[in-house]
Specification:
The protein is of the alpha/beta class. Helices cover 45% and strands 12% of the residues. It is built from 15 helices and 9 strands.
């Protein structure tokens, strides 16, 4: 299938509508790839869209201040291929003017929407009063949302968490975000103080949905597509994050996922090729190694392959390693298929 035909097919899965109403046009629960710093770059988004054309995707979170000054490294993070569409640009910061400027820039680049990160729990981000720190400053958070909503015709969404230590202010924050101009809000069902490693708590997210008129999405702890549809309940959609790393097939029903590693190898190789195309061979392979390690997680004798994978420096190296795995014992291939 040609690239042009494939692109046309994937675009046809999404309705052509006025941009501000984007989040309200879907007639079924929406599934998406969550934004993940260091992982949800263009190459990985293309991989996930190749496996599951129906999903939406997000960029890695990117500094609004840096975009305002056109920092080259940050501009690279906003490159996307048409086959990734619809792509949502995620930005973070705390300056209204920078947010407005970044929003106009995102619109010029052709993104489907703009997402404001108000949930990142990284210490460096929180110390700078970005990310989840904005949940402790509702007034500033709402001014930022308003600044972006007024600066662009693109739909504006917010991604945050249940709260700082609990979900006691979640409904108040959601209502304020909606009043400020947010067109959708996505909640990672954990708090800042317990960001990972604990079960996601979705109850407060369901309660939030009852209090808002804009779409509400959930995120956190989903490891299978079927699990996502079980958890979505009254919500409008859900995002899958960490479970997709090394397993973009998570966006398929389990019955449709490839069982043997040999069936996965072409996608893995294509991922490496896209990394090289986007970043050059040296940097592309350095970045691909962490993905490669996740792709082989769970296979028989994976530890013996670790050294080779950590030193792949070219597409030929990737091909050789994939061939070793594919030609391995059948139980090895089955182990990865079941991982």
């Amino acid at each position: 299938m040609s690239c042009l035909i494939l692109t046309t097919l994937k675009r046809s899965l999404f309705p052509k509508v006025s941009r501000k109403s984007f989040w309200k046009t879907f007639t079924a629960h929406v599934v998406g790839l969550a934004p993940m710093e260091g992982y949800s770059d263009s190459a990985f988004r293309q991989v996930c869209k190749t496996v599951a054309p129906q999903i939406i995707t997000y960029t890695e979170f990117t500094s609004a201040d840096g975009l305002t000054y056109k920092a080259p490294k940050l501009l690279e993070k906003f490159h996307f291929n048409p086959i990734e569409a619809p792509v949502i640009a995620q930005i973070f910061g705390k300056n209204e003017a920078s947010f407005a400027s970044a929003a106009r820039f995102c619109e010029d680049l052709g993104f489907a929407g703009i997402d404001l990160n108000m949930g990142c729990p990284a210490k460096k981000v929180v110390k700078s009063e970005h990310g989840i720190a904005l949940r402790r400053n509702h007034d500033l958070a709402f001014r930022l949302i308003s600044a972006v909503a007024k600066a662009t015709q693109l739909p504006v969404s917010v991604k945050t968490r249940l709260g700082w230590s609990d979900a006691s202010d979640l409904i108040a924050f959601g209502r304020g975000a909606e009043n400020a101009g947010a067109d959708m809000i996505c909640i990672h069902a954990r708090t800042y103080q317990e960001p990972y490693g604990v079960p996601a708590v979705w109850g407060p997210v369901y309660d939030l949905k009852k209090s808002l008129s804009i779409p509400v999405y959930g995120n956190g702890g989903i490891t299978r597509l079927e699990e996502g549809f079980q958890r979505v309940q009254n919500l409008d959609g859900f995002l899958i994050g960490q479970a997709a790393i090394g397993n973009p097939w998570v966006f398929l029903p389990e019955a449709e996922q490839p069982f043997h590693f040999a069936a996965k190898a072409p996608i893995i190789r294509q991922h490496a090729a896209w990394m090289i195309q986007e970043r050059g061979e040296l940097n592309g392979m350095r970045q691909f190694r962490k993905h490669f390690l996740q792709y082989v997680k769970g296979i028989h004798n994976a530890k013996a392959l670790r050294s080779d994978i950590c030193h792949v420096a070219s597409l030929s190296d990737v091909d050789r390693t994939l061939e070793i795995i594919v030609q391995g014992p059948m139980d090895q291939n089955e182990a990865l298929g079941a991982a």
